[in-house]
TrEMBL record:
Gene Ontology MF term list: hydrolase activity, hydrolyzing O-glycosyl compounds
Organism: Paraburkholderia phenazinium
Gene3D superfamilies per the UniProt record, alphabetical: Glycosidases
Signal in keyword set: yes
Record-given protein name: Serine/threonine protein kinase
Record InterPro entries: GH, Glycosyl_Hydrolase_39
Keywords assigned by UniProt, alphabetized: Signal
């Protein structure tokens, strides 16, 4: 539902502890990521080395510091703080309220203390695996004091600050849905020179949308989001009476007038006055008058065509989603379902020459497939231009229920419910019974915390947050790699009623709140940012052929016949559970063909958080050690890549 509205061994980023300054003297100090021995995810220490052809590259930051990827914080400045402060707290405030920062920019790391006596703050900044990126200490006077460090980072990703007072103890307090002990922020990837820029012939060649942050332009830009859902339901535009929606009036949310974020136009929802039930209904039945509904949709088409030509002149089409999870809401007959679509289709197309009417948007791709099969003979294909679905695939999409969980099940019936197989079956049905070349949009899938969990001072743990990020990234890679044209991330910040779907913490509300503005990123948000920075502006080539059981690989090519990008990871149910932990160290070797046999050279490999590294290949093959965190390989020989994939059924590249 969701109704309101690396550790790649060959790219291992174990961030070395940073040198702290003189805590007792008050003299200038700094904390900088260095390339000595580093703390691994489980707390042991390890030194690493760089090798050419894919054996373990290392467990220190050496490779990344050589590439200039570091985090540095300068000595703090101090000022008095408000009375009544907590014993110790921390924040990374940002002008745009995202707590995400551009690579290399200066940001403030502020600690507020209320020590009963003069003391010293010991602090660390760690990544999604608990590896220390920066650390240090500094003295503080008694009473309420704010000490602010100026920091910069060219290391990308999620970071969690922790701090305590040397003499008086304490830890960072719980805040909203964020647990005790951390304050989080993100650093955006800088992939210029790594992932070539692309030229979009049409704005709707972008591939990523999102629910939950519709008017938050800075956040959407940081995450690489190009589309959100804009409500044009009859229940929204005419809640109280007929003929009150005027398409010539200015009904548009001003946020969209920048033309930066496109609209997916949502149409489901019947107000009480137009419903046969006498109450609001989310398309449980057709409205009392389908002819009036068609008239209303013609007005929506008129308005949307004007909006597109005015604010989105480079967008080739308007996209309309007619129903929303009818598996949950629709209570009427299949014939009436088709009649509903007929009225919408004819109304929209009468006034919008660039309309793409989409549905049916069941919760699981498999449910969408079943519905399409069942109603094809009723002429449903005459009233639809594209297919939309939600992307849920399991009884609870969560760290413990990743999209590959059933892929290796010995029962074909069970394996069919793995996400990749659900999308393959959906595309096969589109080819069998519907128009050729139809677009396929996935307009909602989120990864919550495990079923039965609840927010608290010790939940979620860092391991759960890491696992959520990995599963979020893998889910959207699978969707795109199996031939989804656009995929929508769910959700912005945590909200009430369902635990953990947010990609951001709500820092103000213990159970989350819709429209939260005081937020900070989870690892999932920064994994999304890396994902979009790498894969937006691509066409799908498809799943890589011949991968061994438990290895997943999908290839893409940038628009304009550009670079090839292959996303890869492994998954093993035996090392991935809430009871034993979600492994960040399990790995398997895999060799990827990136060039012609007999050739050698280098490619770029990017980790789940967007940190790039050059790696060498020989005989046309790059050898990697894959973990549960996906990585992206940027290469140039498209001929080799295309010969090594299976194009999704019916997929048409831009």
């Amino acid at each position: 539902m969701k109704y309101p509205s690396l550790l790649l061994s060959s790219l291992l980023l174990v961030l070395a502890g940073c040198g702290g300054g003189g805590g007792g003297s008050g003299s200038g100090n700094s904390a900088t990521a260095n390339n000595g021995t580093g703390s691994t995810a489980n707390g042991s220490t390890a030194a690493g080395s760089s090798t050419a052809n894919g054996t373990t590259l290392g467990t220190t930051l050496t490779a990344n510091t050589q590439a200039g990827q570091t985090m540095t914080c300068q000595a703090p400045s101090s000022a008095s703080a408000a009375a009544g402060s907590a014993l110790i707290s921390a924040d990374t405030p940002s002008a745009d309220a995202t707590r995400m920062f551009a690579s290399g920019s200066t940001f403030q790391l502020a600690f507020t203390t209320n020590a009963p006596s003069a003391d010293k703050v010991n602090w660390t900044v760690s990544d999604q695996l608990g590896n220390v990126a920066a650390s240090g200490s500094f003295p503080v006077a008694s009473g309420p004091v704010t000490s602010t460090l100026s920091c910069t980072s060219t290391l990308a990703g999620y970071f969690a600050t922790a701090a305590t007072l040397a003499a008086n103890g304490g830890q960072l307090p719980e805040a909203g849905t964020r647990p005790t002990g951390i304050a989080t922020f993100g650093v955006l990837p800088n992939l210029s020179g790594v992932v070539p820029a692309v030229t979009y012939a049409h704005q709707d060649e972008h591939r990523f949308g999102m629910q939950g942050e519709n008017d938050n332009g800075p956040l959407l830009a940081d995450l690489g989001i190009s589309s959100t859902i804009d409500n044009r339901q009859l229940s929204t535009m005419e809640p109280n009476a007929a003929n009150t929606f005027n398409p010539a009036a200015n009904n548009l949310d001003p946020f969209y007038t920048s033309g930066q974020v496109m609209r997916l136009i949502r149409l489901d929802g019947i107000p009480a006055w137009a419903s046969p039930t006498g109450a609001f209904e989310d398309d449980t039945n057709p409205p009392t008058s389908l002819s009036y509904y068609q008239n209303y949709m013609s007005r929506v088409g008129t308005e949307s065509n004007t909006i597109r030509t005015t604010y989105f002149p480079n967008q080739s089409n308007n996209y309309y989603q007619v129903t929303w999870e009818p598996n949950q809401f629709w209570n009427d007959t299949d014939a009436n379902f088709v009649a509903l679509y007929q009225s919408v289709y004819q109304g929209i197309h009468s006034t919008d020459p660039h309309a793409v009417v989409m549905g049916p948007t069941d919760a699981f791709p498999s449910l969408t497939t079943t519905r399409l099969q069942r109603i094809a003979s009723l002429g449903f294909g005459n009233y639809i231009d594209g297919i939309s679905t939600h992307g849920y695939y399991d009884a609870g999409t969560s760290p413990s229920h990743p999209p590959e969980r059933l892929a290796t099940d010995p029962s074909p019936a069970n394996a069919a419910n793995a996400l990749m197989n659900e999308i393959r079956n959906l595309r096969a049905e589109m080819v069998a019974d519907y128009k050729p070349g139809m677009k396929l949009f996935q307009t909602e899938v989120g990864i919550s915390y495990d079923l039965g969990s609840s927010y608290g001072p010790n939940y979620p743990t860092g391991n759960i947050l890491y696992a959520q990020a990995a599963v979020v990234a893998r889910t959207h890679i699978i969707l795109l790699g199996e031939g989804v044209d656009q995929t929508y991330v769910f959700y912005g910040a945590d909200y009430p009623g369902e635990v953990g779907y947010g990609t951001f913490f709500d820092l103000a509300d213990a159970q989350g709140a819709f429209g939260a503005t005081n937020i900070s990123p989870k690892p999932a948000a920064m994994a999304v940012s890396a994902l979009t920075h790498v894969l937006d502006g691509t066409n799908t080539l498809g799943p890589v052929n011949g991968t061994p059981s438990g290895v997943y690989a999908y290839s893409f090519q940038q628009l304009g016949n550009g670079s090839v990008i292959t996303a890869l990871w492994t998954h093993n149910n035996n090392v991935w559970s809430a009871s034993t932990g979600f492994s960040a160290t399990y790995s398997v070797p895999y060799s990827l063909a990136v060039d012609a046999p007999g050739t050698s050279g280098t490619v770029k490999v990017i980790d789940m958080m967007g940190n790039p590294l050059s790696m060498s290949y020989t005989n046309g093959t790059l050898t990697l050690n894959l973990t549960e965190a996906p990585v992206y390989v940027v290469s140039n020989n498209a001929t080799v890549a295309k010969a090594n994939v299976t194009t999704p059924a019916g997929y048409v590249a831009n």
